[in-house]
Amino acid sequence: MTLLDIKNLNLGFNLSNGFKQVLYDVSLSVNKGEMLAIVGESGCGKTITAMSILKLLPDIAEIKSGKIYFKEEDLLQKSDFQLQKIRGKNIALIPQDPMTALNPLYTIEDQILEVIKLHQPNIKKPRELAIRALKTVKIPNAEERLKSYPHELSGGMKQRIIIAMALSCNADLIIADEPTTALDVTVQAQIMKLLNDIKKEKETAIILITHDLGLVAENADYVAVMYAGKIVEYASKTKLFENPLHPYTKALFKSLPNMTSNKLIPIEGHPPSINEKINGCFFHPRCSYVMDLCAVKSPILLDIKGTQCACWLYEKNT
Ligand code: SF4
């Protein structure tokens, strides 16, 4: 069942030198119990796409067009008051740095109970629910930990607390924005296992925002590759890893370290800045397959044997 369906989202920023578009016709969907990874270099639009779902956007952001259906209701038509009820309860956010999400002045108990009471005001024993949520995310001595302040906990522990908050309200969708970037590799694996367990056991849908293709390979069901505000390739993880089509996706794979070679092949050049105007395919200044057409006409996403790809190389094969 489709839980979230983003259709043709166009968004930009009102800057002092005019309106600058940052998302172009972004369309993607997530089903119950699935993990969709959104990947790409910094500044490609991954986080702003995810934040649009919750309408947690900077004041300069303006959504020009598009729909964001969650359980078949368009979130973009909701008032701030209505969205307030959805945030945290139905859609939870796991931020990159858990320290920014937890208030250092309050205990974990204060913070979890606040979320539970806000979204489930009729619940009889909120403290027990909080303890259960902490146990689900494998926090040892859950009752004791409730009395802790954030600074008394490790980074991994804090991230578990944030996940416990999402669980305590039975969120249908979790947006995990680089959830393990600030953590060491062992804790990273534990947090990803936790998210996978939640996905399987509670059929929670997860959007994983990451630049780490290793995490994607191990965890995601579907992958959207973004470049300069556009989705350039969108496929099941298996298809994307077995047969990447878009030159940018191929270049990302080539730039990864591997066991057989000690040479990394970086992608030459850099992604366009928000003020840079590029005609045609946005990737053409960096693409090793570039053709004359690429610099004048922008390719659209086309279905190529089950993979959506925006590249003129495949136009004849569709
Ligand atoms: Fe490269 Fe052209 Fe495809 Fe863009 S459209 S990725 S420039 S081949």
Keywords:
31% helix; 8-stranded mixed sheet; 318 residues; 25% strand; alpha/beta; binds iron/sulfur cluster; 4-stranded antiparallel sheet; 11 helices
At a glance:
The chain is an alpha/beta fold and 318 residues long. The chain contains 11 helices and 12 strands.
- Annotation field: number of helices: 11
Taking Cα atoms only, what radius of gyration do you get, to the nearest Å?
A: 21 Å
**Strand share of the residues?**
15-25%
Distance N terminus to C terminus? 28 Å
Provide the residue-averaged pLDDT: 91
Strand order of the largest sheet: 6-7-8-3-9-10-12-11
Class from helix and strand fractions = alpha/beta
Sheet with the most strands?
Answer: 8 strands, mixed
> What compounds are bound to the protein?
iron/sulfur cluster
Reading the helices and strands in chain order gives EEEHEEHEHHHHHEHEHEEHHEE
Low-pLDDT sequence parts = none
Oligomer designation: single chain
